[in-house]
């Protein structure tokens, strides 16, 4: 048996390929992580290295992730190469008992490190694990063009982005009733952007990184991928409509409330106007 036949690995590789096919992962752009269940770790353990790597300090800490295992894309690795050579482009990491360091137990056979955004993924996993009572397991970062383009023409507030996206496609309020968070432009890859993003992830399931891309999360790969896809599609419609001409009509706030009522979801009240 090959590690690629383990269900979670198969799904992870498929998600990487699907993201590449969507055009969201130019060069090494984007990264994906999944917190593994105990059962998944046991399925994967026979493939682990005989000798794990050295512990590497992360610069961020989360006690509720102590002892967890993560499947992650590698830093500088290309999503388009993942299906061809998962063992060179992906890795499995074990977290130490303090929750502040990782060590490599599988993958990156030609060398390398987990994604440079691992601090952001790690803190997002921590707040989401807490907020969802352990249900959330996937954090996904991509560079979709339309949502990134929107960050040049809209005020960088969660309210402005959530309203624009909700009104761009009728099913958006159902898919992300909590809206989307927005992180102002920052240097990627470090603790500062990780802290800012994880603060938003306490109450949002997606966070836009200004002039960079999007973070989305979910209990499984399908949900996180689907959220990324839905937000990016709404952003595309938003930009298409604006480039096509003057807006004559849109979904009113009363319509957003009606959708929430019909589908039994709770929209973030402070993002709605009173009408
Ligand atoms: P990595 O190659 O380190 O994952 O970085 C890609 C990226 O999108 C950084 O934000
Ligand atoms: Zn990025």
Care to give the gist of this entry?
This protein is of the alpha+beta class. It is 38% helix and 16% strand.
Report Rg: 19 Å
Number of strands: 9
Bound molecules: 1,3-dihydroxyacetonephosphate, zinc ion
Strand order in space, largest sheet: 2-5-4-3-1-6-9-8-7
CATH class of the largest domain: Alpha Beta
Order of helices and strands: HEHEEHEEHEHHHEHEEHH
Largest sheet: 9 strands, mixed
CATH third-tier fold name of the largest domain: L-fuculose-1-phosphate Aldolase
DSSP summary: helix tally: 10
Number of domains: 2
Q: Give the DSSP E fraction (strand runs of 2 or more residues).
A: 15-25%
What is the subunit arrangement here? Answer: single chain
User: Low-confidence parts, pLDDT < 50 over ≥5 residues?
Assistant: none
Helical amount among residues, as a percent range?
A: 25-40%
* Mean pLDDT across all amino acids: 98
CATH architecture of the largest domain: 3-Layer(aba) Sandwich
What is the CATH superfamily classification of the largest domain?
A: Class II aldolase/adducin N-terminal domain
End-to-end separation: 60 Å
Which structural category fits the helices and strands? Answer: alpha+beta
- Name the overall outline: elongated
């Amino acid at each position: 048996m090959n590690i690629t036949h383990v269900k979670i690995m198969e799904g992870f590789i498929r998600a990487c390929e699907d993201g590449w096919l969507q055009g969201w992962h130019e060069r090494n752009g984007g990264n994906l992580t999944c917190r593994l269940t105990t059962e998944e770790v046991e399925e994967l353990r026979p493939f682990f290295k005989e000798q794990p790597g050295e512990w590497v300090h992360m610069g961020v800490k989360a006690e509720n992730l102590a002892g967890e295992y993560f499947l992650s894309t590698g830093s500088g690795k290309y999503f388009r190469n993942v299906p061809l050579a998962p063992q060179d482009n992906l890795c499995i990491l074990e977290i130490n008992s303090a929750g502040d360091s990782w060590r490599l137990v599988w993958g990156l056979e030609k060398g390398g490190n987990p994604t440079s955004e691992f601090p952001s993924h790690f803190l997002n996993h921590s707040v989401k694990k807490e907020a969802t009572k352990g249900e959330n397991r996937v954090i996904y970062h991509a560079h979709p063009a339309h949502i990134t383009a929107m960050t040049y023409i809209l005020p960088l507030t969660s309210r402005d982005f959530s309203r624009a996206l909700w009104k761009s496609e009728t099913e958006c309020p159902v898919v992300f009733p909590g809206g989307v968070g927005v992180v102002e432009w920052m240097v990627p890859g470090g603790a500062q952007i990780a802290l800012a993003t994880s603060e938003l992830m306490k109450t949002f399931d997606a966070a836009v990184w200004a002039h960079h891309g999007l973070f989305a999360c979910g209990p499984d790969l399908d949900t996180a991928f689907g959220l990324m896809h839905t937000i990016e599609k709404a952003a595309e419609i938003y930009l298409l409509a604006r480039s096509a001409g003057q807006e004559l009509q849109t979904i009113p706030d009363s319509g957003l409330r009606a959708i929430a009522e019909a589908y039994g979801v709770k929209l973030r009240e402070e993002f709605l106007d009173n009408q």
